[in-house]
């Protein structure tokens, strides 16, 4: 089950297929944003990382899946972006596990490697897109 959205900008005005899980993720993120902005601050502290985790994971999977349809340099670039987002999301899981086991997560520590590495891959992916490479 997919939703088709007509892109309102650009010269093609193409119809884009949006997977059901992307629509569900968007709805979840809207709910999370509402809780963070208007809800109890303690609840927001717990809900916000879940929203970031789900958003990064779904976006990463979507980038990787869609990249499979592309060719060479463009496929590599978008796959790097997707992998980077998934690595950053993995960092959130590692921090949560560390909090569950030890009760504390240092402000700076080994878990930052997931975020730094993930975001570095995202930036490398964007920078290596064929139309930005030179």
Q: Key features?
A:
7% strand; two-stranded antiparallel ribbon; single chain; 134 residues
Structure commentary:
The chain has 134 residues and is mostly helical. Helices cover 69% and strands 7% of the residues. It has a two-stranded antiparallel sheet. The relative contact order is 0.10. The model has no long low-confidence stretch (mean pLDDT 85).
List the helices and strands and how they pair.
Layout: E1 2-6, E2 15-19, H1 20-38, H2 41-67, H3 72-102, H4 112-127
Antiparallel strand pairs: 1-2
Helix pairs in contact: 1-2, 2-3, 3-4
Q: Which structural category do the helix and sheet elements fall into?
A: mainly alpha
This entry's quaternary arrangement is single chain
Radius of gyration: 17 Å
Order of strands across the main sheet: 1-2
Strand content: 5-15%
Largest sheet descriptor: 2 strands, antiparallel
From the spread of the alpha carbons, the general shape counts as flat
Percentage of helical residues?
55-70%
Please mark out the parts with pLDDT under 50 across 5 or more consecutive residues, or reply none: none
By DSSP (H or I, 4+ residues per run), the number of helices equals: 4
The helix-strand sequence is EEHHHH
- The first-to-last residue Cα distance is 39 Å
How many individual β-strands?
2
């Amino acid at each position: 089950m997919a939703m088709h959205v007509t892109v309102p900008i650009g010269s093609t005005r193409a119809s884009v297929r949006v997977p059901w899980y992307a629509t569900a993720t968007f709805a979840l993120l809207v709910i999370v944003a509402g809780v963070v902005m208007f809800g109890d601050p303690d609840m927001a502290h717990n809900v916000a990382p879940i929203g970031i985790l789900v958003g990064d994971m779904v976006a990463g999977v979507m980038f990787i899946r869609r990249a499979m349809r592309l060719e060479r340099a463009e496929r590599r670039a978008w796959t790097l972006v997707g992998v980077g987002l998934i690595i950053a999301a993995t960092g959130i899981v590692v921090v949560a596990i560390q909090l569950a086991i030890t009760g504390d997560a240092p402000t700076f520590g080994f878990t930052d490697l997931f975020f730094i590495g993930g975001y570095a891959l995202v930036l490398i992916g964007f920078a290596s897109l064929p139309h930005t490479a030179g």
